[in-house]
Amino acid sequence: MGTTQTRSENKYDDLVTKTGFSPEQIKNLHKRFQQLSENEETISKEHLHSIPALANNPIKKQIIDAFFDKRNQHQDEVGSFQEIGFEQFLMVLSHFRPPTLKMSEEDKARIRKEKLRFLFNMHDTDNDGTITLAEYRKVVEELLSKSGTMGIEAAKAIADAAMLGVASTNVPHMKPDEFYEGITFEHFEQILKGLEMETRMHIRFMDVNTTTMRCGKSTS
């Protein structure tokens, strides 16, 4: 039995290196992938749309799209996949892995940057490297209006005011007739500079009834 377990762990060696997950975590995530894919080798957006825990999430579309965004595969490709396999699925989930106590400050900084890039990509829907007012407004509207917090017009006003605030901070000497093209990744990093988000990014629909997972539901 020990030999069988060793073989199973060795099978995941490459994924452990690429993602930082332990063999046990990868094994459990593979079970969840098989549940979602109905034991097929790939999943499509339709498979994720069927997850009950995502049904009422105001940014459901952005979350699902992120799994199929080539930019989230730790590579320099752009565009979208029609379907993804388990390794691609795992690479996206690796953005939600919290830092460990054994990590160096350099590794922690790298992981934070990867998380910020992931969040930036969710907003930058046209892959042009800039979050425009229209893109930012859409996310804010969906977060606020669809959650029942406020109406679309009020959400739109908040988005516009926030973008104006970002513009005045990042381009303080902008003339009245100049147009602010949008938030670059560098601006995005500055905006979230004081936010502790390394341990706050969770995937809340990945539970497979195991205590070894750190990317499932919060126990708090």
From TrEMBL:
Pfam short name (any one): EF-hand_6
InterPro entries xrefs: CHP3, EF-hand-dom_pair, EF_Hand_1_Ca_BS, EF_hand_dom
GO CC aspect terms: cytoplasm; lamellipodium; nucleus; ruffle membrane
PROSITE patterns documented for this protein: EF_HAND_1, EF_HAND_2
GO biological process entries: cell differentiation
UniProt entry tagged with the keyword Ion transport: no
Entry annotated with the keyword Metal-binding: yes
Xref: SMART domains: EFh
Origin species: Gouania willdenowi (Blunt-snouted clingfish)
Full protein name: Calcineurin B homologous protein 3
Segments traversing the membrane: none
Family: Belongs to the calcineurin regulatory subunit family. CHP subfamily.
Main location: other
Single GO molecular function: protein kinase inhibitor activity
Intracellular or extracellular location(s): Cell projection, Lamellipodium; Cell projection, Ruffle membrane; Cytoplasm; Membrane
Keywords, comma-separated and alphabetical: Calcium, Cell membrane, Cell projection, Cytoplasm, Differentiation, Lipoprotein, Membrane, Metal-binding, Myristate, Nucleus, Protein kinase inhibitor
Topology of this chain in the membrane: Lipid-anchor
